[in-house]
Design brief:
By secondary structure, the protein is mainly beta. The chain is 4% helix and 48% strand. The chain contains 1 helix and 11 strands; from the N terminus they run βββββββββαββ. Strands 2, 4, 5, 6, 9, 10 and 11 form a 7-stranded mixed beta sheet that branches. Strand 7 and strand 8 form a beta hairpin. It is globular, with a radius of gyration of 13 Å. The termini are far apart. 34% of the residues are buried.
Length: 122
Amino acid sequence: QVQLVESGGGLVQAGGSLRLSCAASGRTFSSYDMGWFRQAPGKEREFLAAISWSGGNTYYADSVKGRFTISRDNAKKTVYLQMNSLKPEDTAVYYCAAAPIATMVRGEADYWGQGTQVTVSS
């Protein structure tokens, strides 16, 4: 079992940056691949990025590649999403998730956080 709590969302101007954090509880965090998703109003949930349990492999959706960076600190049981060059279309609720990477790339996950709102103003 893994419990996930996101933080770091907020209001930012276009072109700005935010770093989201996801704190996990549970003894098996370091054995899970982790990822980030988002869901904008009226849209389907979108896979953004994933990182392997060791941190050695990362995967990104084309929509955020080059702007967002996923990382993790297994000692702190935390996964991060650094978001740069933010655009108004990045406005959404951002969710942390845990699951095998292949599962997350399909848009699914075994465990979800409660989400954190990111709003990018133009």
